[in-house]
Amino acid sequence: MNGSAPDENVERKRLYWHSRRGMWELDLLLIPFLEHRYDCLEIADQQAFRELIKQEDQHLFAWLMRRQWPDDSSLRRIVKMIVDYAETTGNDQYRTL
């Protein structure tokens, strides 16, 4: 038996915890994306998401509200993916947050 399943569970919980921010607007974008899209992402995009959630809330807010874009191309790509997902998905998933 390998130890990857418990490791993946711990990693998922860590990602969820770090996706919960001090701003409701960020929670509404990051958590549904994590829950519904993260597993389908390419490895590079998963890494970009992990890097994204390390950023300060004010930067995340500006990026996810399209007031600015990250300079880093991989962060810019994942931000666009999150925004596109939020704009093209129904709001039912947000009711439980």
From TrEMBL:
- GO process terms (BP): succinate metabolic process
Supply the Gene3D superfamilies for this chain: Flavinator of succinate dehydrogenase
Compartment list:
Cytoplasm
Q: Which UniProt keywords apply?
A: Chaperone, Cytoplasm
Q: Record's InterPro entries? A: SDH, SDH_sf, SdhE_FAD_assembly_factor
Listed GO cellular component terms?
cytoplasm
Chief subcellular location: cytoplasm
Similarity field: Belongs to the SdhE FAD assembly factor family.
Protein name (record): FAD assembly factor SdhE
Q: Which organism is it from?
A: Aidingimonas halophila
